[in-house]
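The step that takes the researchers longest sounds almost clerical: writing a folded protein down as plain text. Below is the pair of lines this work produces for a single protein:

——
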Amino acid sequence: MPVNYDEAVDYYDATRGFREGVVERYRAALLDCAGAESGSRILELGIGSGLIAAPFLRAADDYVGIDLSRGMLGLIGGKLAGGLKPGLAQADCRHLPFAAASFDLIHAVRVFHHLPAWRDCIDEARRLLRPGGVLVIVENLPPAEAERPPWGIVQDKWDEILRGLGLADVGHGDGIWITDDGMRRYLVASGARVDFLDLLRFIEKPVSTRVMVERRVARMFSSDWSIPVALHQKAARALIDWLEEECEAPDEMVERETIMRALVARWQ
């Protein structure tokens, strides 16, 4: 099953949000790479709380979003002014409640690594696209030359602790990243033309190692939600000990440049 983010409603925007202007730049880059025109019908898979959707909705684009989490969908209205009412549906992206050939552009940002049945989601997106339509799958990736930031250092230590406690299957399960060649091969086999491009670079909000540890301890990452509570508590104590005893400059606020990298698939 895909991950349902109901558990993250209270803190999602605060921990996953962008600096001012980033999502507006994303909208411009997405429309440009897809060749979208005024009146193009757009679907976002995994719209969540509307962080990405907001500039599309404010621009009155023909925009629809789906998400498994009813709680996350409930946050979207608060981001909009002037009585805007986005088209929303609570749905699994394997089974979407729309007619075939009803969208010109379908996109998903930071979603597919949560989808064990990602092939079914791609097939469903293809069903919904009109001839010449475009599927854009986006993930945030660090530049190749980037140093390991606090969130990466904490992730590495957390995985090490979990493995030491006997939890071998750490991470995001059976989802897929666009860096995995399996996705490209699957799309090409389906008849798609596939391109990769960097939509934009942006600076993430600053964060410290201590803050990232606190988020781990508070179970704010979906990859931790399936961990038994007692095991998570034991791992959290070990992570706090590491922070206090071994970590240098735990309160230093660090920024990182991140790339929004896109896989763009087109079917004739």
In short: The radius of gyration is 19 Å. The mean pLDDT is 92. Strands lie at 41-45, 62-67, 87-90, 103-109, 129-141, 193-203, 257-266.
